[in-house]
Octaprenyl diphosphate synthase
Amino acid sequence: MSFESIKALVENDLRQVDQVIRDRLASDVVLINQVAEYIIGSGGKRLRPLVVLVAAKACGCEGMRHAEAAAIIEFIHTATLLHDDVVDGSTLRRGRDTANEIWGNEASVLVGDYVYSRSFEMMVALGDMRIMDVMASATNQIAEGEVLQLMNTHDPTTTEERYFEVIYRKTAKLFEAGSQVAALLAGAPPSLEAAMAAYGKHLGIAFQLVDDVLDYSGSDRLGKNVGDDLAEGKPTLPLIHALRHGLPEQREIIRKSIEQGSATELARITKAIESTGGLAYTARLARREAALAIEALAELPASAYKQALRELADFAVERTY
């Protein structure tokens, strides 16, 4: 089952999500409409809302409340993108200029706030305190992850443990929350709710690990500049591994590049990462996380949606963009 065929499985639901997004983004403030429409319409895999939709169907959810939940997840993700690009000084995302590059940092931050607060209005409209609790906790942990990443930036002593704490909070937590909310909407028993949360967590970690591999091996399809993490001084797992296993000269080049936030030595650093097995190591851990995600699906009854969740875990680690 290809990624496109998985999307086709919930094609009507995805159309509904798109409609919800456009309806809920509407504002009488023109700049909000311009920026929000630009970032929402700029492509992307829409993997997070897709996970919500497929997970909800796999758990037996009926009706269309899961489309609202999927839109909420996409809104939170969009808000973090708007803020992240300002913090990182990014100029390119999904192959297009970032919103802050076009409208400036002030507009990006403020529109990000609007999209973020709108998501909470939508949560309230769902009328379920358990969902509110899951999502409020998730957004809080995402913010903590952003701050933890900021603390690690330009710090070559960042450990693997600190790195994993960041990617769990910053990336995997939203996948976890989306999968858990899908189970809640379906009225799933506590054991299945926990299993779906575990699926989302491991899927999200696998997804971020592969993102960090692609930052040193990606193509134009990635939609951003290869080496951006290095230029921003972010010690991701391939770098951490190379720092631990590289030759003294390699370690010194990597250390200085992280401290200075410079990609001028990208070619030499990429070679160091490859020679120490940093990419292979990170990819191996990603496959382990994907396997744990698939393992968490054991309680689900057999269905095309369960199979799609398995395939999404495979896609997370096999993708090249």
User: Anything to note?
Assistant: The chain has a mean pLDDT of 93. The first strand starts at residue 92 and ends at 93.
